[in-house]
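During the first year of the project, the team set up a workflow for recording each protein of interest as an amino acid sequence followed immediately by a discrete structure-token representation. This format lets reviewers and collaborators read both layers of information side by side without switching files. As required by the reporting guidelines, we include two representative entries from the current panel. The first entry is reproduced here exactly as it appears in our internal archive.
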Amino acid sequence: AANIWYGAMRIPLAAIDSRPPKEGNTFRINLFRCQGQAPDRKLIVWQPTMSDTFHVPEHFGLLKLVEPRSERRR
């Protein structure tokens, strides 16, 4: 377990979408981690962009809104 790390963040929905939240809405998203200084910097990415830049949204993953567990039908 020493090689595992977890993270959590909160992003206001209004900062990324003007639509009211609705189950099924999707967003392009990618997560990156940079560690250290150049030239030995290490990079970790959730969805590789296959490019020298991180700014390639067509290669990002999809984040899909779903109902909270407490509101899902059983």
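The second entry, processed by the same pipeline in the following quarter, appears below.
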Amino acid sequence: MLYSVLIYASEAVAAARSRQDDEALLARHLALQRELAAEGRLGAVVRLMPTTTATTVRGTNQSMVIDGPFIETKEQLLGLYLVECATLEEAIETARRIGQCCRTPDSGALEIRPVSWSRLDVPRGEAP
């Protein structure tokens, strides 16, 4: 089953990270991504831009568009992994491996959710 592992942490902590620390963090993630790919379990991996770059659309007809983050929280969604796991227990263990890459000093969290459906075979810029 395909699972998403959502990475929540403080954007302020991430923004304060030195370039050297950020490169080390990315190197740890890349090493894990290579391991998961070798196991045939790696799907998409995403690092999101800060919430200050977000735009929120609400409603379907006269949609309301709001620049920036909609709510203030201590933790923000910073990125996600899609991973193939046979069981929830395997997904939890994979999330722990992802967490070891993050090594965040704050109270960051990893949220695991089974994926209902996905469309990963569509090349960028093309309609399915």
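For the second entry, the following points were noted during internal review. The helical segments are 11-16, 19-38, 88-102. The chain has one domain: 2-114. Both points are flagged for discussion at the upcoming steering committee meeting.
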